[in-house]
Amino acid sequence: MYKEDIKKAVPYVLLSLAVGSAGSIIVTKLSSFNPYEYTPSFMPPKPVFMIVWTLLFILMGIANYLINKSSQNSSEDEETNKADTALNTANHTYYFSLAVNFIYSIVFFVVKWPFIAFLVCVYLTILVIQTICQYFEFNKIAAYMNIPYAIWTAFASILTFAFWWLNW
Question: Most buried in the list 22, 50, 65, 155, measured by CB within 10 Å?
Answer without folding.
Answer: 65
